[in-house]
Amino acid sequence: MKLVDRAKIDDLDKIVDLDTEVIGNSSRRGYIEHSIERGHCIIVKNDYDIVGFLIYDTNFFECAFIALVIISPSNRRNGYASLLIEYMVSSSPTTKVFSSTNRSNISMQRVFEMNGFIQSGVVENLDEGDPEIIYFKSKR
């Protein structure tokens, strides 16, 4: 059974373990903890295990911005990212929701497009030679 909900501080260690599995270190622990405390971290579980999480903020021109979507490698391509995004958009505190991904990240581009996001611009010079594509979706 797939369950999506806001993360609680008791979930912190499991979320950080998942993030560490994906990026190779626990450097984002403080960021994740702060996001949970603000209510800006959403988790998805498969039965009892956290298999993914999403972090957003509202600092992007006063609009919601999905800053991070992490799914455990063994659970990718099973709809978990879409569940997180759908939940976030439906509960977004703003009517406009933005996110971004690198031009090289074709799989994340497909996730955004499958979830009704459209391209809204490009930012150069964040990652050399790999522009960031901005995506947009209206909550309406």
From TrEMBL:
SUPFAM superfamilies: Acyl-CoA N-acyltransferases (Nat). One of its GO terms (molecular function) is acyltransferase activity, transferring groups other than amino-acyl groups. It comes from Gracilibacillus kekensis. Pfam families: Acetyltransf_1. This is N-acetyltransferase domain-containing protein. It comes from the Bacteria. InterPro entries: Acyl_CoA_acyltransferase, GNAT_dom. Residues 2-140 form the N-acetyltransferase domain.
